[in-house]
Amino acid sequence: LTAMGEPSMDPSISAADSTAQQDSLFSMMDVFLISLITGLFTYWFFFRKKKEEVPDLPKMQSVAAPVRDSSFIEKMKKTGRNIVVFYGSQTGTAEEFANRLSKDAHRYGLRGMAADPEEYDLSDLSRLSEIDKSLAVFCMATYGEGDPTDNAQDFYDWLQEADADLSGLRFAVFGLGNKTYEHFNAMGKYVDKRLEELGAQRIFELGLGDDDGNLEEDFITWREQFWPAVCEHFGVEATGEESSIRQYELVVHTDVNMNKVYTGEMGRLKSYENQKPPFDAKNPFLAQVTENRKLNEGGERHLMHLELDISNSKIRYESGDHVAVYPANDSSLVNQIGEILGTDLDTVMSLNNLDEESNKKHPFPCPTSYRTALTYYLDITNPPRTNVLYELAQYTTDSGEQERLRKMASSAAEGKALYLSWVVEARRNILAILQDMPSLRPPIDHLCELLPRLQARYYSIASSSKVHPNSIHICAVTVEYETKTGRVNKGVATNWLKNKVPAQNGSSSLVPMYVRKSQFRLPFKPSTPVIMIGPGTGIAPFIGFIQERAWLKQQGKEVGETVLYYGCRREHEDYLYREELARFQKEGVLTQLNVAFSRDQAEKVYVQHLLKKNKENVWKLINEGMAHIYVCGDARNMARDVQNAFYEIVSEFGNMSQPQAVDYVKKLMTKGRYSLDVWS
Fold it and tell me: Which UniProt keywords are given for this protein, alphabetically ordered (predicted)?
């Protein structure tokens, strides 16, 4: 402060006067500054502080609180459970098996619970030994090319990284797979092996279910040996026969606000009226069908190309991804079930879980009507599993029909054979069973409890987002066949899609959908050659691949050889995307177009025959060009035959023995140079 006053001081003023003046100036400045500081502090205290206090309000803290209790151990202790059955499920079958095993437990004086691994912290497995007579069972499906299902991905990642000591854990695994796939039951095998490596004790051998054979029979056979092993291990005995225990109770709503009733939504109520991203399995986007055209010129089948508008959805996809659609059952099938059971299908009801501690409060979104449940939520077209037949048997008034149902649900060889012929091979769905057993008239609410959920259907996307950022294209063939009983069965999704009319208001043109990411990807470098093999609707992802390569070429990028091996029955009947492929070839994007017409000559010609015919060129692309190979379509025959053709080519031109050639191709798969997108 003194320094501030120095320049204004007059040298002629005496020392005393100068001191008095400085004292006066100091006291004035001091008062001014103290007042200013006090004022600023007061302002800060009363105004600023109030704003800062807002985040500390209790309601803000509750938002950040965990939405679920992630400890299955605490839940088991609280509810007196000692068996937990985890399921890795993509289509609902593994979840269904898990529920059946957890219900079985009561027969042995044990209590079970089915659990979704996505909802719990699986590192708690090391604490399961805290519970007496405890056991963890894993029903694990394998998805795609040896991958875990979506809900088991975190569990799989944890198993890979874990160094936990699971020495106190007792476990058993049942895997669900399909032998037509390269990596049969990879997830079940991995979980079984990895748990043992971490010190866990296997109390029963790994079960391997094969969906290409009879998955239900595989499960029953494993289950009937599994429980005696559990009894022996824990020193317990069966307390009685399998009995029917309802898991849900019926509540009929006579006076309900219809705005609170589900009408087909998968998750949030009114989510179809008020759409909010992000869109996924529990929150699908309602896409408008903008194009639906028949692709084939003749023949009995109906092959179609659909375009779904995803504008304003913020949905992103890559070539090779899958689009999942939620279909609806045929209204005539739903009405017939209602008529046979003498039910008012528009009754609004809820099925509430009798176990109040269960995470699964309802078997499907409730409250809803029986009509909505049978149309959007329940699978009424697939042959029912044996546990459904067992539970339904109590509702027959004819002793012969009851005995027949009970026999098919038994583990006896005769019963298994009868179930296989009368239900599986005859493709009898629930409606056909009700029609063929006139005394079987179950309450509709129990039937709704027993039927599995209607699942989303996956299709390989037939477009590139670089060319079509606001639409997703589907290529599909309608499924329709006559059964051994003379009935005509129709594929749920393909026949529902077939009837979607573009540019028509209302639900007739809307498709609930979401995108599932895939590993089926074009090479990172556009200059890398690609060999694509996709007969029939297996051409779908390759239309997207070729569109993308054309786009890259337009951007001035160097694009490598793009080779397609396509096959169909007849050139003038079911040659899909003929004009598009011809245009791509003319433009020089599609460098080779090899088409096998299997029925246009006496001897059948398939894509594998054309590969062998061009074997020298194929080997050159693989060996010198470092080409990536893509196979899409039928897993049961085509994919295997194509793979065998590559073994032959590699063996001949690489001068390798058969085992060496097999190893070479397997290594291409490991390196991501041989990719499969197949189904059976």
Answer: Endoplasmic reticulum, FAD, Flavoprotein, FMN, Membrane, NADP, Oxidoreductase, Transmembrane, Transmembrane helix
